[in-house]
Specification:
By secondary structure, the protein is an all-beta fold. The chain has one helix and 29 strands. It is 1% helix and 38% strand. The protein starts with 12 loop residues before the first strand and ends in a 7-residue tail after the last strand. About 11% of the residues have low confidence.
């Protein structure tokens, strides 16, 4: 079927506002955002519009029983039929990725998530917009989200947070959909910035909530990755972790280390693990079990520690001053 043959009765086209905005760059079903019994749709745009400072936009269009026209102009959204969601700050590129988020806050309305990878000099952001019966109005500024109307997830450094967003479903079975981390891929752990703070001269990345997978494309140098702090015991677990480079510790405690308060899935490290002077530096540790560890090169003055059981472990290089241990009982960092 040719999309040009849509008549309104068999479907309809959604027309962007400006010719170069690339509206429809990202699209997703939205669920029933306003609770009227009809599923809705969300569209994003790259917003290559210099006159608009590249802030970016997304559009939520409400479903209805009938549509009399073959094409609907997104500029005609007034609130009752849908809304425009506006990015915040020059070069934010809000709408580069959009998705339904499930019912994150459990109020019976479907929620939305909008990525804005260029926000704050490309630290990036993702915005969760809570669905509701009341109209958002013709336009909602994503920067105005305040905790009651939704949530902001802000990156740091050059994370490009929000370049790809998706619902994670109900990860821990508590009845609430999660917008948090089903699968996380970053270029550099030193710029992860999910919840960062200075800790003994190193960067701490505290991942709260069950982590599906973590892929780091380069080295971990000095960063402490802590997977802990969830409301349930399962929230302290992590799935597979893949490191494309090496892990290198330093003089600060926990520098160059990965720690899960619960269980760790299969860990694969392409390079070496090199410890430092600081306690627990250059280490992979879990309070529970570690499924397996595959190390491509050497383990030098570093450690692999499991609180309960340590699965199959292979080391492609040398062992020098290393510590590999399974305690048999759970432990904490």
């Amino acid at each position: 079927m040719s999309l040009g043959a849509l008549t309104g009765a068999n479907g309809f086209a959604l027309k962007g506002v400006t010719a170069v905005a690339q509206t429809g760059y990202s699209v997703s079903g939205a669920g029933d955002v306003n609770g009227d019994g009809f599923d809705d749709v969300i569209l994003g745009e790259r917003d290559d519009v210099p006159s608009d400072n590249f802030v970016g936009h997304a559009y939520v269009v409400y479903g209805k029983a009938t549509n009399a026209t073959a094409a609907f102009e997104l500029s005609a959204l007034t609130g009752p039929n849908g809304s425009r969601l506006d990015g915040t700050g020059a070069d934010a590129h809000a709408g580069i990725s959009v998705s339904h988020a499930g019912d994150v806050n459990g109020d019976g309305f479907a929620d939305l998530i909008v990525g804005a990878y260029g926000y704050n000099n490309y630290a990036g952001a993702a915005y969760i917009v809570y669905g509701r019966a009341a109209s958002f109005g013709s336009a909602l500024t994503l920067g105005s989200i305040n905790g009651t109307s939704g949530a902001k997830l802000l990156g740091s450094g050059f994370d490009n947070t929000g370049h790809s967003v998706s619902s994670a479903g109900d990860v821990n079975g508590d009845g609430f959909a999660k917008s948090a981390i089903a699968a996380l891929t970053v270029q550099s752990l030193g710029r992860l910035g999910l919840s960062t703070q200075a800790a003994g001269g190193s960067l701490q990345s505290d991942i709260q909530g069950k982590l599906g997978t973590l892929t780091v494309k380069s080295d971990i140098v000095g960063a402490f990755v802590s997977i802990a702090g969830g409301a349930n015991a399962a929230d302290d677990d992590s799935g597979a972790i893949t490191i494309g480079g090496s892990i290198r510790g330093g003089s600060a405690a926990n520098s160059g280390s990965i720690f899960a308060a619960g269980d760790l899935g299969a860990v694969k490290i392409a390079g070496s693990v090199l410890g430092g002077a600081g306690p627990h530096s250059g280490s992979v540790e879990a309070g529970g079990a570690i499924a397996s560890i595959g190390l491509g090169d050497s383990l030098i003055s570093g450690s692999f520690l499991a609180g309960t059981t340590l699965g199959a472990t292979t080391i492609g290089g040398d062992l020098n001053g290393a510590h590999i241990f399974a305690r048999g009982t759970s432990s904490t960092r």
